[in-house]
Design brief:
404 residues; mainly alpha
């Protein structure tokens, strides 16, 4: 595996830490900037909105950009946004930096996934992709709890500085290790050809992505991620104000969620290929039951700790399998399928904290976002059922088309 692929994973680790770390910092940000906890929670939604907008746009813009230059531009903008965010006393400026950072993150993702695949032989593509995407799960295990720990002892701004500092080695390594050309001789086959001028046009890719089954799958993915982020964004106040755990427990709880997510992604990659549709439906049903159980038992420290781990495992295991579903179904969109999956993921990440904040503002308590998560999972299961009834196309058949 080329060293450059691991460099991309390091950068994704820093960006994933930034995306998720606010779940452990909302109280500190709210107190420092004199805003409500739901307003601080909206900073997570702002990042997600930037990802939703940026994923398809940056994927289009970066189609003709030299890879190394594009990666450097996006990562530099990401670092700059976090430096400004760490310095500002204004909630509005911080909100703006979250959007800018997300746009840069989306652009980096759009280029990094293509670059990682292009640098390896066809047989190693799945591994290269897992290294890049694995940066997100490692962020959940290490980066997010570390950010919460820094926030508790040094203030939330220290976590923003840490993200910027961790990104700097990746900037240097990209300069020295990532090829600047759009394609390489390694792995130069149909995928690389599709990324060159002979590949499908933007219109053809969009036509593939707007097929009914693909759109319903993307909607289901957004609902699942909305449920995940609705509860996850308010995990800190749930744990400290409902469960009764001390603030020192929050980093450990976030790390536990991250460990669960890492295990979930690993198991999904090994198990889901054989019966992906069944795996996804079972995962969604289990998630729905898990959120209901957490809402009912949030006053119990033992139950809360156990369910945080289980829900992290189910959420990321199911989510990663759904991303593979999109690639299987949208075989005519080799460039944009990943960006649309990223957009759907982040639509859920934006809507979830917003909906959870509405229930808190309505005076329904800090366990109310978990009930919203359960409701979103019920909608996701309904949408999945409609998809299977209205569009009974076999995923196996889609896989055969993709391989051919």
């Amino acid at each position: 595996m080329p060293f450059a692929v691991y460099v991309l994973g390091l950068a994704v680790f820093a960006q994933g830490t930034s995306e998720f770390m606010l779940s452990g910092l909302v109280s500190g940000i709210a107190a420092d900037l004199h805003v409500s906890i739901p307003a601080a929670g909206l900073l997570t939604s702002a990042f997600a909105v930037g990802m939703v907008i940026g994923a398809p746009l940056m994927a289009l813009f970066s189609r003709k950009w030299p890879r190394r230059r594009a990666l450097l531009i996006f990562l530099t903008a990401f670092v700059a946004a976090h430096i400004v965010g760490a310095l500002t006393p204004s909630y509005e400026v911080l909100l703006a930096t979250r959007i800018v950072g997300a746009l840069a993150n989306a652009g980096f993702w759009a280029v990094a996934l293509v670059a990682a695949i292009a640098m390896v032989e066809p047989a190693a593509r799945a591994r290269a992709t897992s290294v890049v995407v694995g940066g997100v799960t490692v962020a959940c295990v290490v980066g997010v709890p570390a950010g919460a720990l820094l926030g508790e002892h040094l203030g939330w701004r220290a976590a923003f500085w840490a993200v910027a500092v961790v990104s700097l080695p990746a900037l240097v390594a990209i300069v020295t290790s990532v090829p600047d050309e759009r394609s390489t001789t390694s792995g130069a086959d149909a995928l690389e050809a599709s990324q060159a001028s002979e590949g499908p046009s933007v219109r053809e890719e969009l036509r593939s992505l707007t097929a009914r089954r693909v759109l319903l799958t993307l909607l289901t993915m957004a609902l699942v991620q909305g449920a995940t982020f609705c509860a996850f964004s308010y995990l800190e106040p749930l744990a400290t104000r409902v469960t009764g755990l001390g603030a020192g427990w929050v980093p450990a709880l976030l790390a536990l969620f991250g460990v669960g997510s890492l295990i979930g992604v690993t198991l999904s990659g090994r198990v889901a290929d054989a019966r992906r549709s069944t795996f996804v439906v079972a995962g969604m049903a289990s998630l729905a039951l898990g959120w209901i159980a957490l809402a009912l038992s949030a006053v119990s420290p033992v139950a809360t700790i156990a369910l945080v781990f289980v829900q992290g495992m189910l959420a990321f295991g199911t989510g990663s399998a759904m991303i593979s579903q999109v690639f299987q179904l949208a075989t005519g969109a080799p460039t944009l399928a990943g960006s649309f999956a990223t957009a759907a993921f982040n639509i859920g990440a934006a809507a979830g904290p917003w909906l959870g904040g509405l229930t808190i503002d309505a005076g329904l308590g800090f366990r109310s976002p978990v009930w919203v998560s359960a409701a979103l999972m019920a909608l996701a299961l309904t949408t999945a059922a409609v998809t299977r009834l209205a569009c009974p196309v076999s995923l196996t058949k889609a896989t055969v088309v993709m391989k051919s």
